[in-house]
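Blinded run. Sample ID left blank on purpose so nobody reads anything into the name before looking at the predicted structure. Input follows.
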Amino acid sequence: MNAIPPRPAGPGEHPEPSGPLPVPAVPDLSADRHHVLREHLMSEIRTARESERSPARRRPLLRFYLPLTAVAAAACATALVVGGVVPGVPGGPGGSVSGGGTAAGAGGTGATPRSTAATVVELGTASSDGVVRQLERISLAAAKRTAQVRADQFAYQRRMQAGSIPALERTMPGEGPMVLTPMAHRQIWIPQDPRGNHGLIIENGVSEDWDLTATGNPYAYGLLAAYPTDPDELLTKIYAGLGSGLHDGTTRDQQAFNAVGEILDGAVLPPDLGAALYRAVAKIPGVVLVDRAQDAAGRTGIAVAREDDGARTEWIFDPETLEYLGERKVQVKATRWLRPGTLLSTSAVLESAIVDGKGEVPGTRS
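Blinded prediction complete.
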């Protein structure tokens, strides 16, 4: 496929991005190929030990799968000592966070939850039969969802999420027993001005400024609205944006699937782009339909999924409305330490809206 030349912006339009579609900031690593990050994780564990009693400075990521953060590293280091019950709160959305003050309206009281042993879930049946037809249905449903978004507004999301981390000290994921982190209840405000560098996160009752200066704000509505809506052109941009060395151990097709999932999970999409993304996904080899999957809130739906290196990433949709519910990643092939059905990560989007101010929730005014 050929590269896509930028088109001049018309009156009142945002200029079309000249670069490739932005890529998720967090690598989605296979269970057996984490060695390149070993020294980094060990360094974080040592740092976490030194700062265990001080407020954690977390680097949030748009989604949560492998939390290489001070809190998660401390949980890794502490798990063996406390017999697999790990105090702590997981890190999670790209950029850096600062603060630590409490705020009302968070999905929790600020009390510290505890991690539990690895969770094994029932696996749905995966099949390539009907996946293109189902993605077209999801695409048509996405095209009907409209939103009027101004650059001075914020995308609001209320969600819950958790992920598995190593239970033993000095152990990389997949090289020993795993524990499930505490469920994080989170509210997020993302500026819709492409130049906006500060959002807000309230997690388990703690309010923190979300500094996007380092990572940028590539998923602002105005920027996304300028991307091509032809599925083939869009897929070209997605693959062009993958780069190299960001996703150790995953195939480029899985990287493309993950890149689309990052946008679907964390951005408010222009209807035409949302529809085009699902049609583009139908062209990625290996995408399947799973008849049953459950999100972090316990809601059951169907899933569009892809397996890579023994683990399956599932995007979960309401079977009736075809609304996006959340995502989970499950182990489907047995390894020495991971049983089929081991839950590697789970999330649920509980509410999503456009609001006028940072800290404002739907139905209220700041």
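Unblinding after everyone has recorded impressions. Residues 1-9, 23-113 have pLDDT under 50 and may be disordered.
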